[in-house]
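Running co-folding for heme C.
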Amino acid sequence: MVDIRHLVRSAPHAARCLSVRHFSVPVSLCLLLCNNGIVQTSALTPPVEVESVSPTDPEVILGDRLFFETRFAQFYYEHSAQNVNAALAHGDRVTDHLQAATRPPISGVFRGMSINCRQCHLGDDLLSWDQFAGRNYSDFTRRSPIPDRHDGIQQTVRNSPMMVDLGLPRDVPSLFHFDGEFASLEDLVIDTLTGRNFGWLPSERRIARAHIARVIREDEGVNHRYIADSARQGIPYRVVMLGTSDRLPPHLRIPTRYRIDVGTASDSQILEAAAALITVYVESLRFGTLNTGRTTESPYDIFLTKNNLPKAPADHESAERYAQRLGALIAQKEFISWVAANDGTFSLHNQRYEFGPTELQGLRIFLTTSEQSRSHAGNCVACHVPPRFTDYRFHNTGVSQVEYDQVFGEGSFLRITIPGLATRNSHVDAYLPPSSEYGRATGRFRSMPSKEMPGYADLGVWNVFANPDLPRPQKALRQIFCSQFKQLVNCVDRDILPLTIAHFKTPSIRDLGQSEPYLHSGTELTIEGVLRFYINTSEMMRRGTLRNGSEELAGVRISEIDIPPLAAFLRSLNEDYR
Ligand code: HEC
Ligand code: HEC
């Protein structure tokens, strides 16, 4: 396992190099690259033509440091005796281990420290310990443990998702989190840094902000992933963020728009500047690219290339139109060019690099819509639209209901009383999630089901839509729902709200091999498990026993014999992302 602190002590420049996420080449090679100063990005042409930031851009490097910064947490605030350059005498216990759904707990990457973004959004941190323990910014557990504040909350409500490709442009307005809580990544980052995942209670937002600003102002470059000068000394954040000092190597000077004088800036301005840097880092994460001189494209992508099939929508073509066109081409064509071991290799996935007849059969089922076949169709493409395999919209595939009924018995979810808009909004404490304004709200409908709390469930975007406490995502949500819910006569909030019950954002399904367990509940451990889940819930939808299920789900008509080809196809979307 990589012990970063040890690495830093023995070879700070190695850790510095390793920290550029796409550059996770073996340490020896990394040293070589760093020492010769030939960190190359030329192999990094994204498959889709979009404005892209490179992992070696100084703002991305700095964003990466902040993503790993362990001192922003409430635990550090409480235990560092107000000295932001102090090491903790003992770390937050939440960092001791990484919980894992499919293996024993793993020794914590940040043991002895406190929580940070990376703890729940891992990458190549564990590869030297187990070559198949790579992550695409998710973690290993169903729901991530969070710092203990004696408020009864021990873990995140939802599964930590894969995070690659979030910066790509979308056909629909951008929203983040399974429930669309955030309209921008900056909002997400600010709320996360000052929120419960970092140990801060809803009433502590201001203290959190002041603490984070203070860490940035007073840092002496002692954090374990500092930016180093030519003498390999850590450079304080205030110098790196000002961006002008001679001490800064030219390739580490951030562009003017990210610069800030933290000596004169307010706490909020500093927090916003940090959030902008973390955002640009998150946006730099892209599939299909690696800086070790080759691409990491999946067998599926290579299959498209070898058969001259379009890999992305044409100019002015929507993803939906592209998906139809691709489906039609694939339905007609006789294929002779398969993808096999000589086309690529996997080192991070325990499987052969291939796209053959079985994968093609799975792809065909995946792309077959319910309009094309009423007896045998995956209809997956109705929501998982290529090339990103998401429509970025919200649907109910039955995840909350199935999990709730597993705890309380079949039919229980159907019996939960869910208030309408007026009742909900006039009883915020009873029905909506806590916020700085409503610190004592129960969040009853943004809860994982548990025996002790009957009636508590996760209704997803229902918590966010028309929630006056969350003004920012409302415009995008209305736009999405007014075009999505065709059954609406008048697109008014009161009528939209009930249709949002148990709806969650469609995740991308690329590189699933590095992000199990699956679904917002983390309840499915394998791809086959997810497919059996769909066999079950699509049947419930047709029988009329799925509460507010999505129409497209009824069109999913697959059976046990479709599982091997569909699973093979989904695995052909794996890639050696690191
Ligand atoms: C305690 C674990 C934890 C920590 C710490 C954490 N996250 Fe997350 N993150 C999650 C979980 C769980 C979700 C899913 C939340 C949801 O959808 O409701 C998530 C979701 C996200 C998403 C949304 C992805 C999408 O597709 O919508 C982004 C981006 C993200 N986190 C970035 C960050 C950043 C940046 C930080 C540090 C500032 C951070 N996270 C800290 C657990 C964590
Ligand atoms: C009605 C839209 C819809 C259809 C149809 C649909 N999905 Fe999904 N899919 C979703 C949504 C939404 C989620 C997230 C659900 C949740 O966690 O609550 C999801 C989750 C998944 C996941 C888990 C991803 C992860 O990282 O957790 C996989 C795998 C998946 N779908 C594959 C498929 C396949 C294969 C099909 C066709 C058989 C299919 N889906 C059909 C909307 C859909």
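Result summary
The pocket of heme C (ligand 1) is lined by residues 115, 117, 119-121, 144, 146, 156, 158, 160-161, 163, 166, 176-179, 185, 188-189, 192-193, 197, 278, 282 (CB under 6 Å).
The two ends are 16 Å apart (CA to CA).
Job closed.
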